[in-house]
Design brief:
Length: 158
């Protein structure tokens, strides 16, 4: 009985963190969309005023835009069949600024970000990246293209 309780407690602890991510994509000549997931995995540790994370990740196909056809194109663009995860590793942050290594389609890029505390146990981080930094090809569907600049916003429990 003690083993069952220990396993259940471990499973609850693994799901205690409710991280979310939103990828904001601007379109050309006009418009935009957001791809969201509340299934970000990994743990952020707090030590005084410093935050660290060894590995945060989300399955690419768990990023949803709200339109099935756009999801299909988005996941294909990110080669989710070949690269099923987007990872953010070696994260270090303090005083509203941080750094980490973002990996998309097996391309790693050191990035910086800013964050604000939304509550004593929740922070909001903003990362500005470019599709071209991750060697993602330009996309165009029915005359609508994707701009190079992308904003990633993550809500992280600490």
């Amino acid at each position: 009985m003690k083993i069952i309780i220990a396993v259940m407690a471990s499973a609850l602890m693994m799901n205690a963190y409710a991280h979310e991510v939103t990828v904001k994509v601007a379109l050309s000549p006009a418009g935009s969309f957001e791809a969201k997931s509340d299934k970000v995995k990994g743990e952020v540790k707090k030590d005084g005023a410093k935050f660290t994370a060894e590995n945060l990740w989300v399955k690419t196909d768990e990023l949803k835009t709200g339109i099935d056809l756009r999801d299909e194109h988005f996941h294909k663009h990110l080669a989710s069949d070949k690269f099923p995860k987007i990872t953010f590793t070696k994260v270090m942050a303090a005083d509203g600024k941080g750094t980490g290594t973002l990996t998309v389609d097996d391309v790693k890029k050191d990035v910086s970000f800013t964050y604000t505390m939304k509550s004593p146990t929740k922070l909001e981080a903003t990362i500005n990246v470019k599709n071209s930094d991750f060697k993602l090809k330009e996309e165009n569907y029915m005359g609508i293209g994707v701009k190079d600049d992308v904003v990633i916003v993550a809500i992280i429990d600490v």
